[in-house]
Amino acid sequence: MFWIKLGLVLHTIAAGALTGSVTHHALVLARARRGQPSPRLQRLYPAVAAGCYLVVYVLGTLIYPRYRVAVRAEWLDDHAPWASVLFDLKENLATLLGPLVLAAVVLSRTEDPARPSRALLGCAAAVALGVWLNLLAGLIVVSMRSV
Amino acid sequence: MSARARFATGAGTLAAATVYLVTTTTRAGVLFYLPTRGEWTFKPPTGVIAMDWFARSNATLLVGALVTWAAWRLAPTDPKHCARWAGRWWALGWMLLAWSAAYTVLWLCVRH
Questions:
Q1: Is residue B1 predicted with pLDDT exceeding 70?
Q2: CA-CA distance, B36 to B54, in Å (whole number)?
Q3: How far is A89 from chain B (nearest CA, A)?
Q4: Residue among A89, A92, A117 whose CB faces B2 most closely
Q5: For A77, which residue in chain B has the nearest alpha carbon?
Q6: pLDDT confidence of residue B56
Q7: Which chain B residues have a beta carbon less than 8 Å from that of A68?
Q8: Residue B17 belongs to what domain range?
């Protein structure tokens, strides 16, 4: 039980760091498109985001079976089914964001920082939006009932 | 270099979205985890909690990464040709990702 709680706390901390890094990445890219590139940050943020994504993913995977039985099956499905749906949306959205996180890392390391492509900007914006949605969904579900 | 990266990541994104959509809609070859028993099975018994997310998610991410790597190696050497195909991969990849997200919302809302 202690390890599950600890895993949830670390999962939340890593999710916060992920949210910060992807948001800053999208913002520095938007600035670079307007002619003010930050080459070091444009490469640093996606690398940090990829590391955080991996940590969030692995910890979430370890916690998930406990959530599925002790939280969702025993409580959420009966008392707040909408929260079950919200959690399922969150976990599937996290999966769909994975390829875009990888793409952001690869593109940020190969493109000219002064001229980021629309593909890279699209990846960064989509990942930032998705991660914010996931963060809010996670906080709402945890506020209902947690592992 | 940049066109090659867009080609590889576009192909990887398209492949990942395809795997996600196929495994979500058909459940073909999806391995289920039974958390109350600590077992893995392709055919979960009725009345038992079964989780298909692990298999679907890991397959999506793994195929996306492998196809990105393979496409990087196999990318056309002509930059213009490479850029043209990169645009196609990304257009299809975005469409499939958007459709996957929309399908997931509809599927979960109907299921509950």
A1: no
A2: 15
A3: 7
A4: A117
A5: B112
A6: 94
A7: 35, 49, 51
A8: 3-110
Residues 6+ apart with CB under 8 A from B67: B11, B12, B14, B15, B16
- A94 contact residues in B (CB cutoff 8 A): 57
Answer yes or no: do A93 and B104 touch at CB < 8 A: yes
Residue pLDDT, tens place only, A47-66: 999 999 999 999 999 999 99
The CATH number of domain A2-144 is 1.10.10 = no
Contacts of B86 (CB under 8 A, 6+ apart): A119, B3, B6, B7, B10
- Residues from chain B that touch A129, judged by Cβ atoms under 8 A, are none
- Residue pLDDT, tens place only, A95-134: 999 999 999 999 999 999 999 998 899 999 999 999 999 9
Are the beta carbons of A102 and B12 separated by less than 8 Å? yes
Amino acid at position B78, single letter: D
Q: What distance in Å separates the CA atoms of residue B112 and residue B109, rounded to the nearest whole number?
A: 5
ipTM exceeding 0.90?
yes
The domain ranges of chain A are 2-144
Structural domain count, chain B: 1
